[in-house]
Design goal:
The chain has about 500 residues and is α/β, with parallel strands linked by helices. The protein has 2 domains: about 190 residues, Aspartate Aminotransferase, domain 1, CATH 3.90.1150; about 270 residues, Type I PLP-dependent aspartate aminotransferase-like (Major domain) (Aspartate Aminotransferase, domain 2), CATH 3.40.640. It is built from 16 helices and 16 strands. The strands form 4 sheets. Strands 5-11-10-9-8-6-7 form a 7-stranded mixed beta sheet, sandwiched between helices. A 4-stranded antiparallel beta sheet has the order 12-13-16-15, covered by helices on one side. Helix 6 runs parallel beside helix 13. The longest helix is centred in the last third of the chain and has 22 residues.
Length: about 500
């Protein structure tokens, strides 16, 4: 595969677009920065109110054929570069929402453009294979040099999927099949006639009443199985039949952490005891526990490494599959390639799901018994997409070439320090600042969150919220200190308008 030389990305002067209002930041810091994108804007540019007339007209046209009620902004991707997103009216915003945390190495990344134009990509796009039946001859090589190259420690196999919800649902299926296979006495045991007949009626024993334990405020997707483990907002779940599955309490930590260490430890211990009680007592046996390293959609809720080590110990002791949902936290955003690397587990999770910044999806596993005992039990036509796996391989190459995981850890520390200063200055607007030591995966609560997010575009920033009151930051891995300076100045400007 072709790759970009360092010389092609060397810093050269960047022209600022004339005639547009720009948002200033500290000049000497801006000058000292070495941008990863030579043609990236030096600051946000606001040409009209947002949404502007062209965006409004385009949205009205789209509304005739597509539901636009959830649209954030119509985007001109041809003019979006690096950390900046452009709309149809000439507005260019610093993007710290990044397509709901799913853009890793910047808009119009030159290396990914080369990947997209490669013969491998062309072949995979125009001859898209039904992977379970007709994988390409180089599929093993694509996996080994890409997805499996960054597999979590101890996990050396992968099932590829289409999206995060799909990844979680197939992971749940793997856990259920493993549970029943163990009950039968091993993978060599054949299904009984009663199982074969009853499953066609959606009845036991062929369709057993097993469960997946998730946590309050969790988000694991919007498909049927994943939706039954999602607990973040009622609007996700209303009118959809759900499985009778248990939910445990996720720790509600108090901040600053160093001032509430004993209380937080007690809270986490209480939650762990609840998890074990549910595993032992819930009327539908628990086959797996699924957890996010940081509850993202549910409010950016954190827990300590000790809590997750406790979960791993409980699941092992009770022979329950431990699924870590790294759909949003994976691929470098927390200053580690996988967020669960922060936990220092004695034994790895049984399954780790991924998507978003990987630009593909699936789950990793290591135990051969988690591979179904029969073909077609984990199967659909596409089973993922080789073109997306090629993009992920290109993303990995960029992450390695530029050292973006370590870079994100350093930039996150710089950004967090700036936010701490703002929190001290505006305590009524900064509550429960969290994410220290977690790269750029940072959030805080504010009583006027919705108003804050609405005003952000007028300050040159595309930003998002989560839960009831959290502002969440999801910048790309190419987010740098000079971007942090712009963001901090914009946040202060927004606060002064509230």
């Amino acid at each position: 595969m072709a790759s970009i030389s360092r010389s092609s990305l060397r810093l050269r002067s960047v022209m600022r677009v004339p005639g547009a209002r720009t948002i200033s930041t500290t000049p000497h810091l801006r000058a000292a920065a070495k941008p990863f994108f030579a043609d990236e804007p030096t600051a946000p540019k606001l040409s009209t109110a947002i949404p502007g007339p062209k965006n409004k007209a385009a949205a009205a046209e789209l509304d005739k054929v597509f539901d636009v009620r959830s649209i954030n902004m119509l985007t001109d991707y041809s003019k979006s570069v690096g950390n900046y997103i452009a709309d149809l009216d000439g507005n260019v915003l610093l993007d710290v929402y990044a397509q709901i945390a799913s853009i890793p190495v910047g808009y119009n990344n030159p290396h990914l453009k080369q990947v997209a134009q490669s013969p491998e990509m062309i072949t995979s796009l125009i001859n898209r294979p039904a992977l379970g039946n007709f994988p390409s001859a180089d599929w093993a090589e694509i996996l080994k040099t890409g997805i499996l190259k960054v597999a979590p420690k101890g996990l050396d196999q992968v099932f590829t999927a289409m999206a995060g919800s799909d990844a979680n649902e197939t992971a749940y299926k793997a856990a259920f099949m493993y549970y029943r296979q163990r009950e039968r006495g091993g993978p060599e045991k054949e299904f009984s006639d009663a199982e074969l007949e009853s499953t066609m009626q959606n009845q036991s024993p062929g369709s057993p009443q097993l469960s997946i334990l998730s946590f309050k405020s969790a988000f694991h997707g919007r498909l049927f199985g994943s939706l039954s483990t999602t607990r973040s907002k009622p609007i996700h779940k209303l009118d959809i039949p759900a499985f009778d599955w248990p939910q445990a309490t996720f720790p509600s930590l108090k901040y600053p952490l160093e001032e509430h260490a004993q209380e937080n430890a007690q809270e986490e211990q209480r939650c762990l005891q609840e998890v074990e009680r549910l595993i032992k007592e819930y009327h539908n046996p628990v086959a797996a526990v699924v957890v996010e390293p940081i509850q993202s959609e549910g409010g950016d809720n954190h827990a300590s490494p000790a809590f997750f080590r406790g979960l791993r110990e409980i699941t092992k002791r009770n022979n329950v599959i431990f699924i870590v949902d790294e759909v949003q936290t994976g691929v470098g955003a927390t200053g580690k390639f996988w967020a669960h690397d922060h936990w220092n587990l004695e034994s790895p999770p049984d399954i780790v799901t991924f998507s978003k910044k990987a630009q593909t999806a699936g789950y990793y596993y290591g135990n051969p018994a988690l591979r179904p005992n029969k073909p077609y039990r984990q199967f659909n036509t596409w089973m993922g997409d080789p073109s997306r796996a090629l993009i992920f391989r290109g993303i990995i190459e960029e992450i390695e070439r530029l050292g973006l995981v370590e870079h994100t850890a350093q930039t996150g520390a710089y950004l967090y320090s700036g936010l701490e200063r703002l929190a001290q200055k505006y305590p009524e607007h900064f509550q429960n600042l969290r994410g220290k030591g977690q790269g750029t995966f940072i959030a805080w609560d504010t009583p006027k969150r919705d108003e804050f997010v609405a005003k952000a575009k007028g300050a040159g920033v595309n930003i998002g919220g989560s839960g009831q009151s959290a502002v969440r930051l999801r910048p790309m891995l190419v987010f740098q200190q000079h971007h942090a300076d712009i963001l901090l100045e914009s946040i202060e400007k927004i606060i002064k308008q509230l």
